[in-house]
Automatic annotation (TrEMBL):
Organism: uncultured Frankineae bacterium
Organism ancestry: Bacteria, Bacillati, Actinomycetota, Actinomycetes, Frankiales
Protein name: GTPase Der
A Pfam family annotated for this UniProt entry: MMR_HSR1
Transmembrane segments: none
Keyword Repeat listed: yes
Length: 450
């Protein structure tokens, strides 16, 4: 669904609220999800039970972002695999901030719908009742009959044709908790730091070390932390707001139960932070999960510090091996400050504040337009873009479109190969710094006058 305001997503939005879409099989939940998203992502077939697992999507309306969880058909009296599907829907409701309950207006309220209503009442979550498949005014009379469910006003829509979907989205925003966009350049108070990493790397131990108290439950069993815990922490003589997040075991799509929603909230914590400290266990090989967490922070455009914890367990044999792993596995983030520390002993914990400042400084660096274009002119003179289809593309103008993270746009006469864009990024880092920050370099090809 296109945002009618034309509003873009605000940088640094707070953690997104979660909307669970539930209803019995074949009432059009996935079709409605696609209508909300404004794009065809949820699988839709004209048979019941296509959706079995909880599937998560990002949506926006009127400049606000929220997470939509599409669930399988919910029949509380189901057996076999459908019982498992119903359990997934119940998990979605328990973790959501609001629920979109979809009913087929043509069929009316069934016994299964009544059973779902009883579960929803126990959950004590805001519920938006949707009367789907109302394709014209005649169907609105059928929709009105759903007042009998006792969930308030039924909102008539046609997910297939889009009828009433804009009004429904307005109601959804009213039901979800307020999440005003947080502009970092207007933000007062402590800088926000997301402490992230796979389970059992010592995130809670590090936070407790910084706090000087057992603020967070710590256990040798991986996955003790489920939800983010905000803590004001004094590091390097100043106050920071740390968020200790649940460890990410596996891809969100493959997680289950409470862990699934812990992963969602971990991503939300990264999105809400300005800088992410990714904690790795120095005594173990760098894993795919470690790289995935780093990738989440980079893809979110956050400043980045990589901290190798448990350094007291690293022996002489491990150190050269770790150096090779860093060169091989972390090549895409060589620009991130790295620390070797021990939350247990307190080793090098005092170096965290300078690393945070370095990363944030790179994240907020702006190159004046005049200086940038002089620099790009010299760069192109020394190393021009490769010829493509017999033509030499020219870089006509360059500008820095924004900071946090730094974003550059190259206005060109033709397409620039990805390899040359990476070359420009590498040289930007060499000449202007940007330590601790991802950089975005995009190309805008000038349209020829016809």
């Amino acid at each position: 669904m296109t945002d009618p305001d034309g509003s873009g997503l605000n940088e640094g939005a707070a953690a997104q609220p979660v909307l669970a879409v539930v209803g019995r099989p074949n009432v059009g939940k996935s079709t409605l999800v696609n209508r909300i998203l404004g794009r065809r992502e949820a699988v839709v077939e004209d048979v019941p039970g296509v959706t079995r697992d909880r599937v998560t999507y990002d949506a926006q309306w009127r400049g606000r972002r929220f997470t939509v969880v599409d669930t399988g058909g919910w029949d509380p009296d189901a057996v076999g695999i459908q019982k498992a599907v119903a359990a997934q829907a119940e998990v979605a409701v328990s973790a959501a901030d609001a629920v979109l309950f979809v009913v087929d207006a043509n069929v009316g309220a069934t016994d299964s719908d009544e059973a779902v209503v009883r579960v929803l009442r126990k959950a004590r979550k805001p519920v938006v009742l949707v009367a789907n498949k109302v394709d014209d005014e005649r169907g609105e009379a059928d929709a009105a009959m759903l007042w009998s469910l006792g969930l308030g006003e039924p909102h008539p829509v046609s997910a297939l044709h889009g009828r009433g979907s804009g009004d429904l989205l307005d109601v959804i925003l009213d039901a979800l908790p307020e999440t005003p966009a947080e502009r970092f350049d207007e933000q007062a108070g402590p800088r926000r730091v997301a402490l992230v990493g796979r389970p059992n790397v010592g995130k809670s131990s590090l936070l407790n070390r910084l706090l000087g108290e057992d603020r967070v439950v710590v256990d040798s069993v991986a996955g003790t932390t489920r939800d983010p815990v905000d803590s004001l922490v004094e590091v390097g003589g100043e106050l920071w707001r740390f968020v200790d997040t649940a460890g990410l075991r596996r891809r969100v799509a493959h997680a289950s139960g409470a862990e699934y929603y812990s992963s969602l909230r971990t991503q939300g914590a990264i999105d809400a932070a300005e800088v992410a400290v990714v904690l790795l266990d120095a005594s173990e090989p760098i894993s795919e999960q470690d790289q995935r967490v780093i990738g989440m922070a980079v893809d979110a455009g956050r400043a980045l510090v990589i901290a190798f914890n448990k350094w007291d367990l690293v022996d002489e044999d491990r150190r050269p091996q770790l150096a090779k792993e860093i060169e091989r596995e972390l090549s895409r983030v060589q620009w991130a400050p790295r620390l070797n520390l021990s939350a247990l002993s307190g080793r090098a914990v005092d170096k965290l504040a300078p690393a945070l400042h370095t990363a944030l400084e790179g994240w907020e660096t702006r190159v004046p337009t005049g200086k940038l274009n002089s620099w790009i002119g010299e760069l192109v003179a020394q190393t021009p873009p490769p010829v493509r289809s017999g033509k030499q593309p020219k870089i006509l103008f360059a500008t820095q479109a924004g900071t946090r993270p730094p974003r550059f746009v190259l206005f060109t006469s033709g397409f620039l190969e990805a390899g040359y864009r990476r070359f420009v990024e590498r040289r930007l880092r060499e000449d202007f710094g940007f330590a601790g920050s991802p950089i975005e370099v995009s190309v805008k090809v000038r349209e020829k006058n016809r």
